[in-house]
Structure formats: structure tokens, C-alpha cells
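for the recovery benchmark. C-alpha cells below, seq after
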């Protein structure tokens, strides 16, 4: 569906401003930073999943020629137990510090213990091998349910059970860090009214975001106390805050410079290397660069959690949901902070449920501390809810999209967790898919022995607003230099420039966008939560309005008239005054320095929040019943994007999210042995989808404008990962009769269930 023609720039497909640098290799990523006299660092990481650190001896490493500095947790101050908001979740700073460099214990295989800076990386790596650590190995705790047992070994002595919302905290150490409880209506009455009730248990594995670029950081600590950090991050201001607290220095003494970022998806918000690079730079007196290898990225940075769920739903004879209940336990990894709270809010959000209850638990295990991954928690919850809905439709003989249309959340629907939806597009995405050529077409004929099936599923993500700043300067040639602080992961330079251009009546090529460091722009939250095109877009729009006001004043000075008599025509980028006076934006730009001075527009967004976004997917699969292999034959996404600023980038976000969801559904998971060692810590063994695994993914862009945004924008990046596992599970059930309750639905896992049916 095309963007409304009332816009001049929005809805078009200009070439992205950073495209040439990226395709020619001139764009500088994290590991590309080079500074004169720079040292190179390597990390010592734990070989054990759980152990006490009895002693660390760095003397042999320190004596190696070429070694300039060694740091351990003793070089970092204790930041205390203060809770900080990091864009897509809160974290205890003490736990974050222990995650950066372990103190008394290591809590997962790959946990960082020490770092060495040397003249070159080879010396640094050799020195790391000379560091002697004495461990007392403890049992590894990997399963979330076992970690919740009263007799389980406790990982963190300072963790107490917090009842979210109730304000109560337990008085004994535990692995269960937080419990969420949401309730609406009367659950017992709701299930009593149901004709069909389905209850199932689900498990999902640990999954990594799969970004191609590894973490990298370079730091300079000057003699005057000023620190500069270059890194590939989703949020420079978040890195600045974390480093200041972990290093015990004033916030204003740190400048964070963003490099280009080769993917993040939520995994590059927390710091891992930046404080270490800073500490080494201070100790050595030289710039220090540290880059993770791939195994460390997989073993020691935050994946999305494994989970256990029990979900129950009741539906009456008319196909209306009467009640729904969910029990969800997520493993948080070594320290509290899984996305269980968001999962508990998303699990039933697509539907109008009169009676519901959700219980969610955040549980520590001996795995790396979990982090956000594209709609964190929502994919896991949707896997349970959407497969149960498909089973109910099968039992009642209902069309699964008709069921969703009948039960879809709409404006005014109150979620089980409390909030009431504003204007949203769940019904519209389902309707678009139902009318589309994919859903109305017959299934293709299977290959010899193959089983063909079709499945659908829906998904929700909140999308957030948070805070963004932008400034824009009018140049004398009529172009505009836009300065903003949102890391560009999916083409946001273009989408922001287009919104500023639309505000001023200019073209996208008239805007020159730059993503700058923390000293050069106002506070801006992370690139996450599908917020940038929305919130930073509002900041750019406000900067454009500010420019319009100033250009009106400059024209008034030029013509010696009252500014109230000057108007700005956006359609033609023309300023009009009394007595037929008129001047084009670009012509006035040539003269602004002589009729009032430079024009610098400022804008920010802090209050606006999105209403949330929905998507509904349809997938055709072919299952080989002899091997359990599932092949994706056709895939279609219908998603409400509010207003598609740059349709090509919207399509790319939808397709990219679906591909990651397909990988999550069919192959991706961490394989741990009984000692907690990850056995597939490379992209050879941790299998993400390739072009051979997916067809061209079709997209249906639905536009239900969000009234909180001047152009109706809704973030698009996170919803598309939510429905795929459930949609594929439903297609597999349609093809084989097997209902999968475990992710991934890999050939061994699926074949086991197929054989069990025989």
C-alpha cells in the first residue's frame, strides 16, 4: 500500500546518504580506528561456567617484553547497586561491572577476567596465556527450571526476589530475581465459558543476535583526565553513562565517538570492552584498541534467553477468546535482566482478552548475561500464544485469519497488563494478509514424499519514544546540514533527512545528515525500541519548524516588514510577503548572514510515545518426513508501519526481521555440554540463515498513522521477528500433523516428533 500522495518526499525512495561510503569500503567501523602509538589488547576469559576465583597472578605476563598494562576487576571501582536505565532495560551497575571483569566468581564460560595491552596483538595474546588463575570449580546451572528449585546452588549472593509492582523484596539469596504478575477480569469465569481449552508447555533455546561485526572499542585517556572512546554501539550516550559509572569519573569527562555499526539488534547497548580499553589506556598512558573474536562474541555477549512457558487459552463456540493464562520463566544468564517483563506484556497483546493472567520470572543461570534481541521477549511469547490459537482454530474448524479478525485488539482494547491501546493496526494487517494473493492462492504440489503446509501468526511490539535531539544549519547554497545522535543501523540517516526535507519543502539530497559524538549533539537515547525514525524524526521535524520560523524572520528583515506578514509555503519552499514579495528558500539562504545571521534549527523529542505496531505473517513450507528438514517455499509479511518514510528501507527491515525469525525457528540455538561449555561458538556451527534457506520475502505495507507523530510514523524494525517461529510451527503442523513445542524446530528435533507419531 503506497504512502499518501500528500507528501513530496516521504514515500519516495532516494539513494541513502551513506551508501557510497559503505559500498566502496570507506565507511569506518569499530575495528577500523587507528591512532598513533596505539596499543592492542587481548582478554583472558574463563574456561569454566561457574567457579570461584581464588587468586590471579599476572607477574609472568607483566614481565613479557612488549606488555604495557594489565587490568583486572581490582582496577575498576565498585559502582554500587544503583539501577540504571540503558534504553531497552534496566541494569544493576554492580552486576554490569562484574560482567565486564569478573571479581570473586566467574559465572559463564567466556566470562572476562583480565586484559593485557601490548605493542601488538600477538604479544597481548601470548601474555594472556601467562596469567595464572586458581579456580574452585562449582557445578554449572543451565536449565531455568532447575535454577528455580529451592535446593539449587545460588549464583549471586546479592540477588533477592523482587515482586514487580508490589514493592516487596525477599530476604534470602535466590536465582529468581524478579516476578511479574498481571491480571484482568475473572480467569475462572472465563475458562468456564469456553467450549475449547488448550494448554501446552513450550521451551526455547538460547539465541544470539547474529550481527556480523564483532564488538570493538578504542580509548584514549589524556593526562588532563579527558577520555575519548571510539566504538560500534547502538547508543553513544548510554556508553558514556556506563563508562562514567564503571570507571568512577565525571560524565562530562568522557566523549564517545560512534563508528559505523555492522549490526546490533539490541546486542550492542551494554558495554563489554569500552571500560576495559579505558582502564588500559589510563594505566599505559597510550591509546588502546580491543576487538572481540567471534567465539567471544557468542560465548560472552548477551544473547536472548532460553525459556520455559506454559500457556492456556479458552475459546467459546463463536470463536471468541474467553480467557488466557501464561506462566513464563526466562533465563537471564549470569545476572538479572532478561526481557521477561516485556514478554509478559506482549504475550497476549494482539488480542482482546476479557479474562487473563500472566506470571513471568527472571532467573539467573550460568550463561552470558542476556540482552535485548529485536522485540526482546515478544518472539518467545508469540511462539506459545500463536501456536495455541492455531490448534484451537483447527479444533473448531475456524479460518485462522478470521479468528484473528474477530479477536483482534483495537483502539480502546485494554491489555492484560493494563494499558489501553490508542489507534493501532492489528486488524488492518490481518485483513491485508487475508485479502493478499498469497493467502488466497492454492498450496503448491509437494515433491516426491514431501509434505506441504501453510501457517499464519501475528505479533506485537510496543515501539518506544524516549529522548532525541537534533540540530540543523542552513548553508548559504540552500542545503541543510543535519546533526543527530542516533546510530544508523537500518538507513535512519535517510529517513531523518527525508522528514526534515518534508518539513521544509526541500529534497532529500538537500539535507546532509551526520551522526555525531556525545559532545556535538544533545542527549539522545539508544537506537533501539524501533524509536529512531519516530522520536529522532520528531526532533528533526521540530528543528525544521525552528528553521522555518527563523527564515520567516530573515525574510522580514530583508523586506523590512512585520514577520507576522510573512508566510512559508512548504509545497514550493518559498517565503511570501506583502505586496507580492516572494523568495525561494535557497535564494534567501544566500543572504541570511546579511539579514539577521546564521540559521540554526534545534529540535528535541521527549514526551511522544508510540502506540505500538503489529504484523501478521503467512508462510508455506515443505517438510521432508524422512529427515525432518523444513524448507521455506513462500513468505509474506503484512505490517502496520504508520507511514512508510522510505518504502525500500521499510521492506528491508520487514524482510531482515523475518529472516532472523526463520533462523530462530529452524536452526539457531546454543549447544552447551553438561559443564556449561558452548560447543558451537562459530558461524560454521551456529547456523544462521543464508540465501539458500529463504525465498524472496513479500511485503504488504499497511499504513495506520500514529497520531503521536507529525507524519504518522510507527517504528518497523522489531515486529517482523515476532511471528516467524509460530507461523512456521503452524505450517509444519498443517503439513505433518506434528505440533512443535520446542525451538528450534531443527531437523533432529522435528524428526523425533514425526517418528513419535508413527
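predicted aa per position
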Amino acid at each position: 500500500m503506497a504512502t499518501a500522495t500528500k507528501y513530496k518526499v516521504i514515500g519516495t525512495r532516494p539513494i541513502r546518504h551513506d551508501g557510497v561510503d559503505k559500498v566502496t569500503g570507506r565507511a569506518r567501523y569499530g575495528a577500523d580506528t587507528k591512532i598513533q602509538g596505539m596499543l592492542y589488547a587481548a582478554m583472558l576469559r574463563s574456561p569454566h561456567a561457574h567457579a570461584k576465583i581464588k587468586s590471579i597472578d599476572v607477574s609472568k605476563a607483566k614481565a613479557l617484553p612488549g606488555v604495557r598494562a594489565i587490568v583486572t576487576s581490582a582496577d575498576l571501582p565498585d559502582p554500587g547497586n544503583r539501577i540504571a536505565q540503558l534504553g531497552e532495560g534496566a541494569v544493576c551497575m554492580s552486576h554490569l561491572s562484574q560482567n565486564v571483569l569478573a571479581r570473586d566468581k566467574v559465572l559463564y564460560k567466556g566470562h572476562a577476567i583480565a586484559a593485557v595491552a601490548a605493542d601488538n596483538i600477538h604479544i597481548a595474546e601470548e601474555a594472556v596465556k601467562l596469567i595464572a588463575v586458581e579456580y574452585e570449580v562449582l557445578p554449572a546451572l543451565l536449565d531455568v527450571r532447575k535454577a528455580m528449585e529451592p535446593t539449587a546452588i545460588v549464583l549471586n549472593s546479592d540477588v533477592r526476589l523482587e515482586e514487580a509492582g508490589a514493592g516487596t523484596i525477599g530476604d534470602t539469596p535466590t536465582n529468581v530475581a524478579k516476578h511479574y504478575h498481571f491480571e484482568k477480569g475473572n480467569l475462572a469465569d472465563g475458562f468456564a465459558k469456553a467450549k475449547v481449552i488448550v494448554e501446552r508447555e513450550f521451551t526455547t533455546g538460547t539465541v544470539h543476535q547474529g550481527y556480523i561485526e564483532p564488538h570493538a572499542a578504542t580509548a584514549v585517556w589524556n593526562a588532563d583526565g579527558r577520555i575519548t572512546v571510539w566504538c560500534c554501539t547502538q547508543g553513544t550516550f548510554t556508553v558514556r553513562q556506563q563508562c562514567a559509572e564503571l570507571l568512577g569519573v565525571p560524565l562530562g569527562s568522557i566523549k564517545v565517538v560512534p563508528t559505523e555499526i555492522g549490526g546490533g539488534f539490541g546486542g550492542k547497548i551494554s558495554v563489554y570492552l569500552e571500560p576495559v580499553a579505558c582502564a588500559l589506556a589510563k594505566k599505559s598512558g597510550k591509546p588502546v584498541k580491543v576487538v572481540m573474536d567471534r567465539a567471544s562474541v557468542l560465548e560472552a555477549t548477551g544473547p536472548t534467553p532460553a525459556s520455559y512457558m506454559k500457556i492456556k487459552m479458552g475459546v467459546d463456540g463463536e470463536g471468541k477468546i474467553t480467557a488466557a493464562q501464561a506462566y513464563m520463566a526466562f533465563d537471564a544468564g549470569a545476572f538479572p535482566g532478561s526481557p521477561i517483563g516485556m514478554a509478559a506484556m506482549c504475550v497476549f497483546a494482539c488480542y482482546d482478552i476479557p479474562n487473563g493472567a500472566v506470571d513471568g520470572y527472571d532467573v539467573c543461570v550460568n550463561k552470558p548475561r542476556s540482552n535485548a534481541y529485536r522485540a526482546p521477549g515478544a518472539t518467545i511469547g508469540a511462539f506459545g500464544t500463536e501456536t495455541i490459537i492455531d490448534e484451537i482454530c483447527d479444533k473448531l474448524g475456524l479460518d485462522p485469519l478470521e479468528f484473528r479478525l474477530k479477536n483482534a485488539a483495537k483502539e480502546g482494547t485494554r491489555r492484560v497488563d493494563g494499558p489501553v491501546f490508542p489507534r493501532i493496526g492489528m486488524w488492518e494487517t490481518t485483513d491485508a494478509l487475508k485479502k493478499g494473493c498469497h493467502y488466497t492462492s492454492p498450496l503448491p504440489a509437494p515433491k516426491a514424499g514431501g509434505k506441504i503446509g501453510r501457517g499464519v501468526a501475528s505479533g506485537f511490539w510496543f515501539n518506544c519514544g524516549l529522548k532525541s535531539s537534533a540540530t540543523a544549519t542552513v548553508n548559504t547554497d540552500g542545503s541543510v546540514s543535519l546533526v543527530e545522535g542516533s546510530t544508523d543501523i537500518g538507513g535512519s540517516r535517510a529517513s531523518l533527512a527525508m522528514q526534515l526535507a518534508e518539513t521544509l519543502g526541500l529534497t532529500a539530497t538537500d539535507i546532509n545528515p551526520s551522526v555525531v559524538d556525545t559532545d556535538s549533539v544533545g542527549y539522545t537515547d539508544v537506537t533501539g525500541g524501533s524509536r529512531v525514525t519516530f522520536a529522532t524524526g520528531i526532533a528533526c521535524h521540530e528543528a525544521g519548524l525552528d528553521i522555518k520560523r527563523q527564515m520567516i524572520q530573515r525574510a522580514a528583515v530583508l523586506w523590512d516588514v512585520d514577520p507576522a506578514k510573512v508566510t512559508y509555503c512548504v509545497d514550493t519552499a518559498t517565503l511570501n510577503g506583502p505586496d507580492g514579495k516572494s523568495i525561494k528558500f535557497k535564494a534567501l539562504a544566500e543572504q541570511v548572514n546579511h539579514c539577521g545571521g546564521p540559521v540554526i534549527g534545534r529540535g528535541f523529542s521527549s514526551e511522544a510515545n508510540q502506540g505500538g505496531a503489529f504484523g501478521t505473517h503467512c508462510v508455506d513450507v515443505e517438510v521432508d518426513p524422512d529427515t525432518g528438514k523444513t524448507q521455506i517455499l513462500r513468505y509474506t509479511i503484512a505490517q502496520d508501519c504508520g507511514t512508510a518514510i522510505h518504502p525500500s528501507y521499510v521492506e528491508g527491515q520487514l524482510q531482515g526481521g523475518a529472516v532472523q525469525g526463520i533462523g530462530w525457528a529452524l536452526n539457531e540455538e546454543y549447544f552447551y555440554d553438561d559443564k556449561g561449555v558452548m560447543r558451537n561458538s562459530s558461524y560454521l556451527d551456529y547456523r544462521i540463515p543464508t540465501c539458500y534457506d529463504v525465498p524472496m520475502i513479500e511485503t504488504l505495507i499497511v499504513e495506520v498513522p500514529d497520531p503521536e507523530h507529525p507524519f504518522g510514523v510507527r517504528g518497523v524494525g522489531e515486529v517482523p521477528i515476532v511471528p516467524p517461529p509460530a507461523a512456521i510451527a503452524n505450517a509444519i503442523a498443517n503439513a505433518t500433523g506434528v505440533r512443535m513445542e520446542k525451538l528450534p524446530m531443527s531437523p533432529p528435533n522435528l524428526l523425533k516428533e514425526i517418528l513419535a507419531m508413527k
